[in-house]
Amino acid sequence: MKKLLFLFLLVAAIPALAADSQVVIMNTESLIYHHPSCSRVESCTKNCIKTTRNEAVARGARACRVCGG
Ligand SMILES: [Zn+2]
To answer: Could you tell me if residue 4 is inside a domain?
Structure first.
C-alpha cells in the first residue's frame, strides 16, 4: 500500500514540474505567454521573448486564450 502511494505521488508531481519548465513565448508588452507553436507567435516579433512558463507567470503574464500557453 505504501508503495502505491509513493508511485501515485511521483506520477502526480511530474506534470506539474514539466509545466513549470515548459518553454513559452512571452509578450512583454501585453503580458501574455504562448506555446511556441501558437499562430499568434509568428506575428509577435518585437516584444516577445523565449522563457519558461514558470518565469512568465512570475513576471505577471497570463496564458494565451488561443493556445492556452
Ligand atoms: Zn497563443
So the answer is: no
Q: Cell numbers at residue 35, please? A: 506555446
Strand partners, 27: 32, 48
| Range scoring the smallest mean pLDDT among 15-19, 29-33, 61-65 | 15-19
Tell me the whole-structure pTM to 2 decimals.
Answer: 0.71
Q: How far is the CA of 34 from the centre of ligand 1 (A)?
A: 4
Confirm whether 63 is domain-assigned. Answer: yes
CA of 68 to the centre of ligand 1 (A): 6
Report the separation in Å between the CA atom of 63 and the middle of ligand 1, taken as the mean of its atom positions.
Answer: 7
Å from CA of 53 to ligand 1 middle: 13
Contact between residue 37 and residue 10 where contact means Cβ atoms under 8 Å apart: no
Per the structure, the count of domains in the chain is 1
